[in-house]
Amino acid sequence: MSFRIISSLIQKGPIRILARTESTAAITPTIANSAQSDEPIDITNPFEKDRAQCILCRSNITPNYKNVKLLSQFQSPYTGRIYGRHITGLCKAKQEQVEKEIIKAQNCALMPTYHKSVEFLQDPKLFDPERPIRPHKY
Amino acid sequence: MPSYELALVLRQMARPELVSTLKRTAESILDKGGIIRKIENMGQQNLPYKISVHGQVHKVGNMFTIEFDSAPTQIDDLAEEYSRDIDIIRKNIFKVEQPPEIKCTLHEELLPPAYRKEVQEMVRIGQKKQKKKFNYNSGLDYYPFQK
């Protein structure tokens, strides 16, 4: 992505150095030269943010139905329901995988359906259900 | 032959009985021309919910997983055979597949709605569904349709 900036207005970063070298090369800049230095230049966007990654993609984890400790972190301790994507902060594909594996584990009688296993209640929280990343459906 | 994984829950019983039950379930795979790759014992556990099968209510079970290769035509027969076994509380046969390569799309999902692809698609469908309105500046001095 290119980002057009008028070089004379730039005061920090590598562009400033570029402007200085130009001025040293031509001590008495002609009218044509000054016009050139005013021209917008093509650079990549210096304000672009890093790509956001979900917690499972970042650590390269594929959820499995036998990994009940991990899966129960995506389950509500009050109702046993699986938290939605707006709460878990997972990407679409990973959320789908997690939901699938939780249902598999519940069918294999490895995981409860109406509550969270008592031994996992003290596990660290991956997200806060009170502060969803997108507005709540209800 | 594709790979499968059998998740077993056996009822609570003495060790010799448990061994014979496990042997029986494993042998039925071999009888149908399958190959057993791995047998895993996850131990005796309290079931997360009570299960009633074969006229009994179970609250404790022995968890096992068996990884095996078998012809896909034999899977239904295996499941049917296990469902008749009164020592088996629950059985699930899953196909083992290589997990698909996933590229994280969270960055695109967190963009404001106007920049999200699915929202743009939704807007386009909505615009398509809108009824065409008669344009009054068409040069006609009367309304051409029924009112």
UniProtKB/TrEMBL annotation, chain A:
The protein's UniProt keywords, in alphabetical order, are: Ribonucleoprotein, Ribosomal protein
Q: Can you tell which superkingdom this protein's organism belongs to?
A: Eukaryota
Coiled-coil regions in this chain? Answer: none
Pfam families hit by this protein: Ribosomal_S18 (PF01084)
Gene Ontology CC annotations of this record: mitochondrial small ribosomal subunit
For this UniProt entry, the molecular function terms from Gene Ontology, in alphabetical order, are: small ribosomal subunit rRNA binding; structural constituent of ribosome
Gene Ontology BP annotations = mitochondrial translation
Q: Which InterPro entries match?
A: Ribosomal_bS18 (IPR001648), Ribosomal_bS18_sf (IPR036870)
Annotated family: Belongs to the bacterial ribosomal protein bS18 family.
Q: What is this protein called?
A: Mitochondrial ribosomal protein S18C
What taxonomic lineage is listed for the species of origin?
Eukaryota, Metazoa, Ecdysozoa, Arthropoda, Hexapoda
TrEMBL record, chain B:
Query: What CDD domains does the annotation carry?
Result: bS6_mito (cd15465)
InterPro entries membership: Ribosomal_bS6, Ribosomal_bS6_sf, Transl_elong_EF1B/ribsomal_bS6
Q: What GO molecular function terms would the record report?
A: small ribosomal subunit rRNA binding; structural constituent of ribosome
Any one Pfam family here would be Ribosomal_S6
Report which superkingdom the organism of origin falls in.
Eukaryota
Query: What are the recorded Gene Ontology BP terms?
Result: translation
Q: What's in the GO CC field? A: mitochondrial small ribosomal subunit
Q: Which family does the record assign?
A: Belongs to the bacterial ribosomal protein bS6 family.
| Name of this protein | Small ribosomal subunit protein bS6m
